[in-house]
Fold these 2 entries.
Entry 1:
Amino acid sequence: MTTTTVTGTAVGPRLRERRDAGRKLLVPYVTGGVSADWTDYLRAYADAGADAVEIGLPFSDPMIDGPTVQEASERALHRGATVRGILADLRAVRVDVPLIVMTYYHLVAREGHAEFCAALAEAGVRGLIVPDLPLDELAGLEQAAAVADVDLILVAAPSCAPSRLREIATRSRGFVYAMTAMVTTGERAELPASAGEFATRLRAHGDLPVVLGFGISTPEHAAAGARAADGVVVGAALMRRLLDGATPAEAGAQVRALRAAMDEAHG
Amino acid sequence: MGAITAAGLPALLPAAGLMHDPGTTGRFGDFGGRYVPEALIPACAEVEEAFRAAWADAGFRRDLDRLLTVYAGRPTALTPAWNLSAELGITVLLKREDLAHTGSHKINNVLGQALLARRMGRTRLLAETGAGQHGVATATAAALLGLSATVFMGQKDMARQALNVHRMRLLGAEVVEVTGGSRTLKDATSEAMRHWVTCVDEAYYCLGSVMGPHPYPWMVREFQRVIGEEARAQCAAELPAAIPDYVVACVGGGSNAAGTFAGFAGTAAKLVGVEAAGGAAISGGKVAVMHGHRSYAIQDEHGQILEAESVAAGLDYPGIGPEHAHLHDLGRARYVTVTDDEVIDAVRRLARSEGILPALESAHAIAWVLRAARDGELPPGATVLVTLSGRGDKDMTTLMEIS
């Protein structure tokens, strides 16, 4: 086995440091390979005040994604996007924010846990979210991610029993990804008030940052999310405009507006 | 073949260990499991707990048996295919699931799950459907038990199975068109699971085949086991050797095959599952985690799941239930494929020789028997049980377009 070269910015230390310094965390999302210039969006997000960037590795059957991310995944796959191709693109990118990959378990398992995590680390990716891999099936990947210095970030849902939430909060690395509601990814008109209560429940289980995601669509939502938790993930709202033709500069402006609303809300 | 003795069973396979309870992890060897977001874990656990309790409850079993008898028309007949048997020089017995209420075996599973949903206090059934047979069965059970039903169906399937779409709506179900991806069963299933996330407290996901997260592959096989158990008793009355040499069923997700095989897994009968050549998860696929379980599925070199391509909407699925993957790996069942052309020929042949119009799905099993008898793979005098999973009325539009 070859030695893995770990590059990129570690997720956990950076986010914790910023959270402890009083900053609210903003994690914008882009589907890898969605356009020829997709890594320019990543740079634009970083320049606009993102604290980390989530990159989707498209899968043909995205179980927890709504219409917008499904469309982005289909477009990327149609363009010929592959796991290896997207990671190769990332190796050419140098940004000073942690990179996190989100994908489905089939694409991880077929490569092998250790091989997949090593490939992430070599591409400068230091965080991984696998939403269809629950605690019961987690052990193998959890170990491989730890060996590769990749934070395996777990997704907590409002439906989870208290004991399960505690285990998710304990075994998650980097941060805890909290679903705002029982929904798939996608833009929503309202951010439910229960999202804040859920984030508070999760924070009681430990010191990891708690970041809200699913349906955070507007600067107002981002501000409300920043008041209720340590930060927010914004995906479909950015991807919708990207799919409709927004340039990297326009996407950057959208992220800047989210950043400003969060900073203002937090005072 | 003589009486069934322990010595007649393949040595590897103690009958007690095959096609039984997969335990709390839902594993069939390396396959199965529960690969769903945490958001759905409580719902899956609740279904498992409720099913374990119901299945052990004599009152529940009595209610289900009564519905299967007086409502669904069980037991279904075992019909010797007299003319075809004479032509082929073998004995073909047809297990007539096409005679069950709503026209296919799907009703067996749906009545069980709908009773379970009601017992769990749910008011709405969610379902995916390919050919529409599971959707129709779900709409039917919902009407009977006073539940509402929402059925997800691919746009392509809604066009080619328009009759079943109208049947579901007439029965009071809401049919949701799925326009993403393949626009067939694969994406209808994904969409049903996504929708389930949003309504777990109120809705029950009534999955139509032996797939999905634990406990569905096991639970659906148990609800379909009635096919195999009836057939086993009927074969004992019909055949001098009591057990047929071959047991054959078509396989998409694989529920009619699983139910049939469950009655014969502990016997010396050779089990044959027939997949569509354009959706051959075992013959042409690799290990995959999809729709909540680990099994085989057809995929490209980068791991993306491929779209199946079959004239039969019910078999137009790139994966297969995890227990079939296990039976394949053990060598206990064999999985073969037939082409669309062979299937159309089989429909015509059975219609002309026996006066039975099979569903395009079920005709896959017939097509393999025709080929195997011709090629000598089925020796003269062999006894063959074929599960005729459904009737072909729903396929008239497709058949008219082909002829």
Note: Chain A has a mean pLDDT of 96.
Entry 2:
Amino acid sequence: MAAQGARSETILVVGGGIAGITTAVEAAEAGAEVVLVERGPSLGGRVAQLSRYFPKLCHPTCGLEINYQRIRGNRRLRVITMATVAAVTGDRGAYTARIETRPRHVTARCTGCGDCARASQTRVPNPYNYDLDTVPAAHLAHPMAYPMRYVIADSVIGTPEADRIEAACRYGAVDLGEEPGAFDMVVGAVVWATGWRPYDAAKLQPYGYERHANVITNVEMERLAATTGPTLGQILRPSDAKPAKRVAMIQCAGSRDHNHLPYCSRICCLASLKHAAYLREAYADAEVDIYYIDIRAHDKLESFHARIKADPRVRFIKSKPASISENEAGDPVLHGEDTLTRDLYETAYDMVVLAIGMAPTAGDAMPEAALETDEYGFIVAAETLGGGMFSAGVAAGPLDVSLSVQSATAAALKAIQAVRGG
Amino acid sequence: MAEAAKTAVYLCAGCGIGEAVSIEALEAVATGESKASSCRRHDHLCDDAGVATIQADIDSGAAERIVIAACSERVNADRFRFDGTPPIRCDLRERVAWSQPPGAEDTQMLAADYVRMALAEAEKSAPPSGQADPGTSKTILVVGGGVSGLTAALESARAGYQVMLVERASDLGGHGAKWSKRMPHRPPYRLPQDNDIGALIAAVTAEPRITVHTRSRVVSTAGGPGRFLVTLDSGGTTIEETLGAIVVATGWRPYDATKLGHLGYGASPDVVTGVELETMLGAGELACKSDGRRPAAVAFIQCAGSRDPDHLPYCSSICCGVSIKQALMIRERVPDSSVYIIHDELRTPGTAEAFYRAAQAAGVIFMKGKVSAVGADLTVTVEDVLLGETVAMAGLDLVVLATGMMPNATAPEAEAIAPQPAPDIDPLAPILAAGATVPEPGSEDASEDDSGPEIGSILNLQYRQGPHLPILADGFADSHFLCFPYETRRSGIYTCGPVRRPMDMAESATDATGAALKAIQAIEAAAAGTALHPRGGDLSFPRINLDPCTKCRRCTVECPFGAIDESDDDYPVVEVARCRRCGTCMGACPVRTISFENYSVEMVSAMIKAVEVPDEFAEKPRVLVLACRNDAIPALDMAGISGTRYSPFARVVPVRCLGSVSALWISDALSTGYDGVILMGCKAGDDYQCHFVKGSAITQERMGKIAETLKSMMLEEERVVTHEVAIADARRAPELIDSFLDTIAEIGPNPFKGF
């Protein structure tokens, strides 16, 4: 344990997604000392898994690259990957955070040369692609991974393959004996930027996500569209790798639903509009049907809605489909009633995309005593436990990227105030 | 200059470099022909021992400049960080060993050229010495005393900064002070909350670091971060102040309801706007204006003037929530009332969904439909789009138009008398679909003076590029970057609140806190003499040698950030703290007037000329690739990381921004015998991704002139091409290089080869 009464002006940021990165970089560029802790092997979080952003259809890796440059150029900012925060005690200006680390089995001596991956034979599920494909047991989280350092899957540790991987590394960077660790750190403020996870689509029973190969989620759609995804950017349906040209999007799949996520996840309408753009860009004869309750394209993003609506090959159907079945061709078939016309429909598509919502992960990633959460699990903007803890990004509510960045920039200032005793 | 600096080259043989090329041969290139003072090889340069070797050479004075010939500049920047001796990075890994066949002659020639280029860079550049005279004011000017401005002021003060808060009205609070209740932003998100703006005003008033100037406006703003010279008109008194950074929180105004005659506004006193209803709700007893009776039937008409191409095309975001709040308040005051909310898309994002459900539970009736007319007798005509029929609702006592928000990016009174500044993007540009014709990019004249009208400016910037903050579509203040929403085109000036986009009080408070942080950063960067985003920490800045300057004004016009003014005798004057170090001015200059200590026309020319160009019979063409550091270079890196092979005949020079590319480099390359030039930059146009806003667009403009130059040199136009390359183009970027070499093969070698 750290000495009683030790004070620190360091800001601890928990979570290395866009909100955590932004909080860390903005605080460091304003002169603060910052430690950024990320659970996974690379920074970037959920946005690194998006192909493009709405409404500009630009690549998230572009902004991430700028942020990585800012991190690289800033001595006041330290990044710790493969780490979580297990406990926080103390008060503003003098918290003790218990950091727990998981083994990466690759040390800082790693040059990123990839010899270890070439020595791997076992393939493991690839979480970067939402397990739609596999990667070698020794792998880089993705081509834009930051830090550019390989990671070895726990599943091969203790096998002869691990020894081969170790032998393949010319730089002595493989540490097969690395154990989970823990250490304490005294910090002045903590910002929880713990983000979200996609809502579990399997819980939407009538849609048969687990039964129908060609029913996918919106986050999987991002990977299909991404050049770094399992199909190298071609939008092919999973069952037979046929181009997905007739596609339905089901909005509020889990959101605005008492049995699932009672709130609106804010981003799903815009994400589906973006997916329509992906499909229209990919296939001249693509047809997209969007099943919706309300299209929520907030503020200036209405123009994105208007742009997509102007395309006659994208249709909007006000309806929440009741169920999905599958025909002999393996096409998912949507069943339901059009809310406006009261017509019943039974329509087959090449592929159906469930616009699933954002579920907060603060409950898992944040020690219970840290900050209050609301009935949904989002952090409530309240200053508890000494007044030096804050939230940033989706940890506090469903936000898009720009809103997360605003929230994170604000959190950076609150944290600076806390450590400087303002 | 005195004796040439001792340049040490460190060649790493790790990561496959040693297998791909002969390190000994590269050593000979470095110390032989290229005159490096020393050259060391290492098998794992980024390891502690390698880094220590370099540090020891620096400490002993053996290395005054260092060239690290190893991996891409994108990796190991933290390892190769030496105080006072920034390294020149020479990429032999991603761009050579990982993308070329090992042991090939062409691979060796490529590596040798990159070493030569790095040594030329080292020779023609110096570590930036920084500014002699940085700005020193640490006071923040906040313009606007509503929720956003009050919050920005208070949060800045709480971080220890002095604040000058300027408000036009005689009281603080802005629109927010008029609301009886506010929308819920705290659990359980179901009931209107008390409006706590009084406490915010009291906190600002009591804060000793904040000076409040009411009945005041900014008459003029000159200078830059750290030393903005601001003149106020404060109730007739002139106040001059030097300030460090500026937060613009001028908020919004309601859309002019008199333009909504079709919705009955003006025809009956009982057709009111949401803002007017707030006053009525605040007055206690709710009564119709016409005859004072209690309204028993009330209809809210959503999107009154919003999401309407004839009025405001955007969604004003807050109106659904506001109407729900007001509907709940009416239901509470008049429990037997019927309250309808007629909407197209009901928008209660996030946890506001609970508020919507609470209103449903409280008996508020929600109806989907578009209202086409409201009569003087309050009959509301709702269009059924599907059936093509209309439904009339009669018997209403009160009709509330949920009018939208208009940004105060210019002073509201100027709206009627002056045209607004021109937006720089079209938000409704069609989405690109497969098979559709691609619109010609860069058709608008990027060099056009877009300073806008002279009046109505909030800050009255005394900048060459005009008095206004640039705006995007629909009058909202600048930032077109999703990842960097605070990055305006006027350095050290940050906007927040509804002047940026429609938002409610809670969002405005968050936004204002973020803007305050950015203002603090600008102040601290100005004091340290370093650049702002995206080149934070950069000490270099453009220096202008006035001797060759022809006063052509291209640099002052083309600077994306309005950082260059003109002196009384028409010479360019750089306000360094406003400069973002993109080098667009350098690319604009037809002569070699503008340079950075570590980035200049001369430096890149030397790098281009350092390449050994084989003669026309060697069948080894050479192509120069000028690639944007932010997106094209990482894309080429990714190509290397994934082992993509591409032509060994390309020589890549990273540039700060395509806007910094000088036409002289292209003529240098062609007269040196390169067979062609590829420019790779970020996307221009309505969805621009250029990190320096206009660099890419301006280059596309300039390319027209390059074509003329080629013609005059009797060279084919195809020898110089520009491509938009995104960071995700790891496969496409090498393909572009390869297919360009195919083109070169078709048109044949550059006839200037060997001259």
Note: Confidence is low (pLDDT under 50) at residues 441-449 of chain B.
